[in-house]
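Q: What structure does this chain adopt?
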Amino acid sequence: MPKCIFQFSHILLLCIFIFLAWSVPSEANSPACSNPIKVGYNDWPPYAWQDMQGEAQGLDVELLRAFAEFLGCEINFINVPAKRSHQMLKSGSLDIMMGATKTVEREEYSFFSDPYRDEEVRLFVLDENKDNVKLEQWQDIFTQKLRLLVPISGWYGADYENTRERLALENLLILSPDVDKSVQMLTYDRADLMIGDAIAMPYIASQHQGVRLSALKPILDHNPIHLMLSKQSMSPLLLAQFNRAIKALTINGEIARIVYKWQQISLAQQSKISNQYGPFYRLYAGLLTFDIAR
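A:
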């Protein structure tokens, strides 16, 4: 074969390979999901809530939008109560839930992503009482006979779970239906301190009740937080794709930036409330609320 023809055939083959490489989309450039992903959430600010226009907002919402954008996925947020959302995840009518703690029971119907943020459980007092309550460890609740407010749903750490019956027996346990009611009851002096999420508790207190809280020293629980993917509607491949997004946005600092942003929003709101509302205003507002509710 003449040398010029041999060289031309090699060049032709190289061009064909290049064309094929260009024409087949790579994993990095092709969307990870072919259909819109249905994401369930309930109102738990600052992690997630529905605004006045019906749009999902919050820390976890912003993080999931960042993961979806990285993967080229379309997402639809659906506001549903927490208990119903788990049932919908089991059936596959929801694809993803955010802000989840991994448990053996939940692993029966869900894939869990790698952790994408952490969660702390703390004890809180009204800001004006922070110098009056000296609590260094969980046992101080019993030695000082401090009345503890606890919302009925949620995980609050091993210390609480292991001593819940003792708290009740010693009349130190006061249950409330939710965080809002806990804050109201604290302002009415129904308890000395309350328990809850380190970011959500002060945020909800400032936004909904005009109350500034101070965290006490003990950290009662520290948990990694995950995405839950329905085993009915999602695949191990999609789980791997979301883990890829979490890893990439951890490395480039995007997750840390979003978490820090919402921490600062919470702190700024508390400072604003502290300047606007003093303890006498809160007492007056609380009495009005009590009269209306009664």
